[in-house]
Amino acid sequence: MPAFKMIDAVKIDLYARDHPPPHFHAIYAEYEELIEIDTLKTIVGMIPKNQRQKVINRAKNHQD
To answer: Is 36 left (phi over 0), alpha (psi -120 to 50) or beta?
Structure first.
């Protein structure tokens, strides 16, 4: 599946038939983090702190 968005080398993926709660996958090198869309909290995994902050800032600005 093509990336939904790229944020400073972090690939953001959304899967149409993925499990609840609604979330996106942030993938950076060998790291992956699932982030809940409503709360922006981590469901599972992790990406480095600097990349995560960029992803979260972007998500906050586009949460609507």
So the answer is: beta
22: DSSP letter: P
Q: Domain extents for the chain?
A: 5-61
Non-local (6+) Cβ contacts of 12 within 8 A are 3, 4, 5, 6, 24, 25, 26, 27, 55
Q: Which of 32, 37, 39 is nearest to 11 (CA)?
A: 32
- CA-based nearest residue to 27, from 61, 4, 57: 4
Which residues of the chain fall below pLDDT 50? none
Q: Cβ(53)–Cβ(61) under 8 Å?
A: no
Q: What is the pTM of this model?
A: 0.87
